[in-house]
Design goal:
This protein is 35% helix and 24% strand. It is α/β, with parallel strands linked by helices. It has 2 domains: 253 residues, Rossmann fold (3-Layer(aba) Sandwich), CATH 3.40.50.300; 146 residues, Isochorismatase-like (Rossmann fold), CATH 3.40.50.850. Helix 5 runs parallel beside helix 6, helix 12 packs parallel to helix 13 and helix 13 runs parallel beside helix 14. The relative contact order is 0.09.
Length: 417
C-alpha cells in the first residue's frame, strides 16, 4: 500500500503541495487529476523519493520511504516517468533488463532468473516482437510499453505512471491504459496514475484524487469527483457532465466561453431528424454556415442530443431507451412543419423511433422540402419490419430528395439563401 499523509512539498521555500492525503492499495487503480501546475508531477517526485517533503509522510506498507534506501524502494516501487530521456541507442531488451538493477548486488551480473523475468515482462507488455530493435526506433506507444516492461521487471508491488498517455494518439492512449488496468488486476499492483484527460481518468480509474492549487480538492469514486461544480472550481472551466450511456461513468463535455457560431444569418430554416451520432457533423456545419437549425426527436444522453445541447439548438428530447412519446412526436411534427427544409439522416430505425420518419412524411405532405440522406441505404438500417423502408418510399413518391452521401446533401444546402 502506498500512502501520503498530510504531504507538504515545495521548491526553494515555495510550497507546491499542501497537506495532501491519498491511498493506493493492491489491486486498485487510482488516478490523480488536476490542472497544469497543480502539483501532480511534484506529488510523483515526493512519492518516489526524489523530492523530500517539507512536512508529512510518504509511506510504503507503513514504512516512511525516506527511511528506506533507494535500492530497497526500487525493489517495491516502479515509476514510469512522463518523459523518458534515453541518451544511448540501447536495444529494447537491454532497456527492460535495467529494471533488474535493484535486485543485483553491487558487482553482480544478471542470472538466468533475471532474464526469465525480463522475458515475462516483455511478453506481458507485448514488446517481445521488437526486443532487439533500438529504443529510438520505436513509436511513442511502443516506447511507453517498453518503459512499463522495465518497471515490471523490477517486480514492484506499487506502480506509478506519470501521464503515460501524454503525446500519444487516442489508439495508443487506450492501449496503454488497457495494459495498465490489466496488469494492476493480474499482478495485484497498487497503481497510481497521473492523467491529464478527465474522460480517460473517469473511464479507467477505481478512485480519483483531484488536486488544484496544490491542495486536495476532492477524492472518491469518479461519480463523486467528476462533477460540474468541482471541475469548475479546479479548472475554472464550464463543462457539462453526464453519465456515459455505455460505460455508466461520468463523461465531460467542454462548454466553450466563445459562441460556437454566429447568430443565424441565412433565411432558410432547417429541422434535422437524426440520432445515434448521425447528426453531429451536420449540426456543426449548418450552424457555422449561418442556418437556424432545430433538432428532434433525440434521446437524452444520445450523442446527437448532447451536441444539440452544447450548440444550444432548439430540440425535442425524450427519455433514453424509450419509444417516442405522443408529446414529443407532436412537438417534433410542429418544428418540422414550421421549417423550410427537413433533413433526415441515415439513422437506424426501429419501432421506438419510427415516429421520426412519420413526422418527416407529414411535413412533406404539408409542402415542406425534405432531404433524405440514405447512408447507409435504408434496407440495412430498417429494424421495423420494413415500415421504415415503406415510409421512405412514401416520401420519395411525394417529391422528397434522396442523397446517397451526407456530402451531397451538404453541397445542396450550402447553396441555399
Amino acid at each position: 500500500m502506498l500512502e501520503a499523509h498530510n504531504l507538504t512539498v515545495g521548491y526553494n521555500g515555495d510550497l507546491v503541495l499542501r497537506d495532501v492525503n491519498l491511498t493506493a492499495a493492491r489491486g486498485q487503480f487510482v488516478g490523480v487529476v488536476g490542472p497544469n501546475g497543480s502539483g501532480k508531477s511534484t506529488l510523483v517526485r515526493a512519492l518516489s523519493r526524489v523530492l523530500h517533503p517539507v512536512a508529512g509522510q510518504a509511506l510504503l506498507d507503513g514504512t516512511d520511504i525516506y527511511q528506506m534506501s533507494a535500492r530497497e524502494l526500487a525493489r517495491h516501487l516502479a515509476v514510469v516517468a512522463q518523459e523518458q530521456a534515453i541518451a544511448f541507442d540501447f536495444p529494447v531488451r537491454e532497456i527492460v533488463l535495467m529494471g533488474r538493477s535493484p535486485h543485483l548486488s553491487r558487482f553482480g551480473v544478471e542470472s538466468a532468473r533475471d532474464y526469465r523475468i525480463v522475458e515475462e515482462a516483455m511478453q506481458l507488455t507485448h514488446v517481445t516482437a521488437f526486443a532487439d530493435r533500438s529504443i529510438t526506433s520505436l513509436s511513442g506507444g511502443e516506447r511507453q510499453r517498453c518503459m512499463i516492461a522495465r518497471g515490471l521487471a523490477q517486480q514492484p508491488s506499487v506502480l506509478i505512471l506519470d501521464e503515460p498517455t501524454a503525446h500519444l494518439d487516442i489508439n495508443h492512449q487506450i492501449e496503454i491504459l488497457d495494459l495498465a488496468r490489466r496488469l494492476t488486476a493480474e499482478r495485484s499492483l497498487a497503481t497510481l496514475v497521473i492523467l491529464h484527460d478527465l474522460n480517460l481518468a473517469s473511464q479507467y480509474c477505481d478512485h480519483l484524487v483531484l488536486i488544484a492549487n496544490g491542495e486536495l480538492l476532492a477524492e472518491g469514486m469518479p461519480d463523486d469527483v467528476v462533477t460540474e461544480s468541482r471541475i469548475r472550481a479546479a479548472y475554472g472551466a464550464d463543462v457539462q457532465v453526464k453519465q456515459h450511456p455505455i460505460t455508466g461513468r461520468p463523461y465531460v463535455t467542454l462548454m466553450s466561453r466563445l459562441p460556437v457560431t454566429a447568430p443565424p444569418t441565412r433565411k432558410t430554416t432547417i429541422h434535422l431528424i437524426c440520432g445515434a451520432g448521425t447528426g453531429v457533423t451536420l449540426m456543426r456545419r449548418l450552424r457555422r454556415l449561418g442556418f437556424a437549425v432545430s433538432v428532434g426527436v433525440v434521446n437524452v444522453a444520445d450523442t446527437d442530443q448532447m451536441e444539440a445541447e452544447a450548440l444550444d439548438l432548439p430540440r425535442v428530447e425524450d427519455a433514453p431507451f424509450s419509444p417516442i412519446s405522443d408529446e414529443a412526436h407532436q412537438r417534433n411534427l410542429k418544428m418540422a412543419r414550421e421549417a423550410d427544409i427537413v433533413v433526415v439522416t441515415g439513422i437506424p430505425v426501429g419501432q421506438g423511433n419510427l415516429r421520426n420518419l412519420e413526422a418527416a412524411v407529414k411535413a412533406r405532405g404539408a409542402g415542406v422540402r425534405v432531404l433524405l440522406i440514405d447512408d447507409p441505404p435504408i434496407p440495412g438500417r430498417d429494424f421495423a419490419d420494413g415500415e421504415a423502408t415503406s415510409l421512405q418510399r412514401q416520401m420519395l413518391n411525394s417529391g422528397a430528395e434522396l442523397y446517397p452521401e451526407e456530402a451531397d446533401a451538404m453541397a445542396r444546402l450550402e447553396a441555399l439563401p
